[in-house]
Design a protein that fits this description.
Radius of gyration: 19 Å
Number of strands: 14
CATH class of the largest domain: Alpha Beta
Structural class: alpha+beta
Bound molecules: 2,5-anhydro-1,6-di-O-phosphono-D-mannitol, magnesium ion
Helix content: 25-40%
Number of domains: 2
CATH architecture of the largest domain: 2-Layer Sandwich
Low-confidence stretches: none
């Protein structure tokens, strides 16, 4: 008989491994699934729901806010802020920490997220996603402050992402392996489809925006040239795959093996992607799956953020590919 394990069932069973678990984490996760189902429905009907395009406003990073960005933000905040398990939320789309409603008790968890990553692709039916990381506040009570969020990636309690693609998939880890769940739209439940995901030690794919080649460091240029060399034994040349939607690029490389690179460049000296909302959650997942993530010099999860919106160069994927990239950086000294 086919096992049909829902995400909520899986989380309840997983929580039995954590003595003293209060059930708050399970409720948080159940609310994440509710919010993501609502966002998926909206993404799916975006073309007919008059929700495509820009809101006309600009976010904290100077980027245009898409209507769906705003919808995803409001949905996650609306659903999660009433749970009583959060002390605060921080998002790519809001300037400061999001306060929980006055009539809801404050909890111990901190939720950092990118509500709709890759949203500039939405108007052309390319997959987008939500990325999230969960920390426990170190001390204090009441509303979380920005300082509460400045914890290193390695202190994360759980992280995950949802890809809104040809199907919706939620992938997460609490430090006990990475598991993937596919939404069965006929019953509205995320069902376990990918148990204990491991990223191949070495891949055959690389993902980088090669349009920026002339802005790259020597190490980055040399590394990409190296991947293109004809060398059958070393599994080269690698194939280029770049969607321009981090969640989708990461998801594909996680399952197939490969390396994603958004390095620092002359226009983005600190990289483009965000440490809290993108790099930390995905780095925790990739390490749990046997891969690695670096900013070129440091392990991403060791970094302590200076502010919630900090950007970071991100090189992430199969372990041996990330190590090879590091060798190129060490050789060039940059
Ligand atoms: P967003 O969070 O505003 O959507 O921006 C992040 C996106 C990632 O999904 C993607 O990897 C990257 O930006 C693409 O950037 P570029 O167009 O410079 O290649
Ligand atoms: Mg993003």
């Amino acid at each position: 008989m086919k096992e049909y394990i829902t995400l909520s069932r899986f989380i309840i069973e997983e929580q039995r491994n954590y003595p003293g678990a209060t059930g708050e984490f399970s409720s948080l996760f159940s609310d994440i699934t509710t919010a993501s189902k609502v966002v998926y429905r909206e993404v799916n009907r975006a073309g007919i729901a008059e929700i495509l395009g820009s809101t006309g406003s600009i976010n904290v990073f100077g980027e245009e806010v898409q209507k769906l960005d705003e919808f995803a933000l409001k949905t996650f905040v609306g659903v999660l802020s009433r749970g009583g398990y959060l002390a605060g939320m921080a998002s790519e789309e809001t300037v400061s920490v999001i306060k929980m409603p006055d009539d809801v008790p404050r909890g111990k968890y901190l939720f950092a997220f990118d509500p709709l990553d890759g949203s500039s692709n939405i108007d052309v039916n390319v997959s987008v996603g939500t990325i999230f990381g969960i920390w426990k506040r170190k001390d204090g009570e009441g509303d979380a402050s920005e300082e509460d969020f400045l914890q290193p990636g390695k202190d994360i309690i759980a992280s995950g992402y949802v890809v809104y693609g040809s199907s919706a998939m939620l992938v997460y880890t609490t430090g006990r392996g990475v598991h993937g769940f596919t939404l069965d739209p006929s019953v509205g439940e995320f069902i376990l489809s990918h148990y204990d995901i491991k990223i191949p030690e070495k891949g055959k794919l690389y993902s980088a925006n090669e349009g920026y080649y002339n802005r790259w460091s020597k190490a980055m240029k040399n590394y990409i040239e190296y991947l293109k060399e004809e060398d059958k034994e070393a599994g080269k040349p690698y194939s280029a795959r770049y969607i321009g939607s981090l969640v989708s690029d990461f998801h594909r490389n996680l399952l197939k093996g490969g390396i994603f690179l958004y390095p620092a460049d002359s226009k983005h000296p600190k990289g483009k992607l965000r440490l809290l909302y993108e790099a930390f959650p995905l780095s925790y997942i990739v390490e749990q799956a046997g891969g690695a993530a670096t900013d070129g010099k440091r392990r991403i999860l060791d970094i302590v953020p200076e502010n919630i919106h900090q950007r970071i160069p991100l090189i992430i994927g199969s372990k041996r590919d990330v190590e090879k990239f590091r060798e190129f950086v060490e050789k060039e000294g940059e």
